[in-house]
Amino acid sequence: MKTISPRVIVKQIQKVIGKGSHQLHEPYFSGKEIKYLNDTIKKNFVSSAGAYVNKFEKKIVKYTDTKFAVAVVNGTQAIYISLKACNVQRNEE
Question: Nearest to residue 4, comparing CAs of 31, 42, 13?
Fold first, then answer.
């Protein structure tokens, strides 16, 4: 397998988005975020679990027509859990 240096990767990305700092994500707020955030703070339950996480998982199950959904903190954790679930071992491609 050919190894690509980080410099090469950065140069390729810069060809697409240019040099300098860039936001990777512009937040979008539809209006109820403050209400929901305040609700979780009042209930002292700002975590990776709770009523809103459960609602989200149920909506994803319905939307994707699957049996289960598990919300995780970020994409890296999603990939990690997926690889573990598939029993992918270290140094396997």
Answer: 13
Q: List the one residue out of 88, 91, 56 whose CA is nearest residue 72.
A: 56
Contact present, 10 and 35 (Cβ < 8 Å): no
One-letter identity of residue 70? V
Contacts of 69 (CB under 8 A, 6+ apart): 57, 58, 60, 61
User: Which residue type sits at 92?
Assistant: E
Rounded to 5 degrees, φ, ψ at 10 are -60, -45
Instruction: Specify the amino acid at residue 84.
Output: K
pLDDT tens per residue, range 41-56: 888 777 777 888 889 9
Question: What token pair was written down for 4?
Answer: 């690509």
Kindly report whether the global pTM for this prediction surpasses the value 0.85: no
Distance from C-alpha of 53 to C-alpha of 45, rounded to nearest angstrom: 11
